[in-house]
Design a protein that fits this description.
By secondary structure, the chain is mostly helical. The chain contains nine helices and four strands; from the N terminus they run ββαααβααααααβ. A hairpin with a 5-residue loop joins strand 1 and strand 2. The protein is globular.
Length: about 280
Amino acid sequence: MKFNFTKNRNIHYNLGIYADKEKRVVGNTQYNYYLLQDNRFLKRSLDEIAQAYSISPSKFDLNEQVGKDCYKYAYNCEQFINSVRLGLESFDIPVSVNTKKFQVNYYYADYNTNVKSTLFPQGEEGKATILYLLHILSTINFLLYVLNNYEKDDYGWWLKVNYIVYYYAVHKLTNLNEHFVQNKLITPEIEKLFDTLNCRNAQYLNGTFRNYIMHSKLINREGNSIISTQNLDRTKLLFGLVETCFDGMNYEELKVNIILEMGRISKILSQWLDIQSLNIKPLKD
């Protein structure tokens, strides 16, 4: 806010939503802030942060800290990717890593989450649920309508990233459903939403496959291979792991089904949040 006396009047925007020209939400500022916030502030009380600042305010230059963190992250990524590339050079199966060129024309809409609007029809009441669902929708849609459009060669990574988004989206929605049930907060509208999502019967959840996606280990805790002998084939993407975990379904079939299922969830959440009512404007450079 430009003037101090306006800060307490609750008239400022505190949520920016990013979308494409089809009004498909692909991000929002509150979720982006959560993902990129300074790690020193995580799980710390405000008193602890204030005390640390009073002792050494020079160390709280966020621009400098973010720059260092981004450099370190990029350096570690480069080291890892280069080591994989060197390892694949001697592998007897040709592997290429290429992406398409793709450009998104972004649009935006600004909101105050504390007042009534088309996105927050009850104002502060129920806004936590709306934001929770908006964050899930943002994650799914960024993958579906931005990142996936860069796919050219698939050497196993594209199923991995799609699966982990699908897996945790389902888990987050299931957790929210359980929260409403346990705290007796279920309303007919919320109940209808979760019945339509039907996350309790998600057919592509597999703990073994999820563990590999997260940790890249093809053995279990006992040291045994998680790929069955009959499905083990080094010419297949992920070497037969998909066929083992999903009853013979192949890599491409699983990826297509995961993407379709995320598209279904995206459509349901978008309709429930009434995303088409967003008054979006072109985002200029």
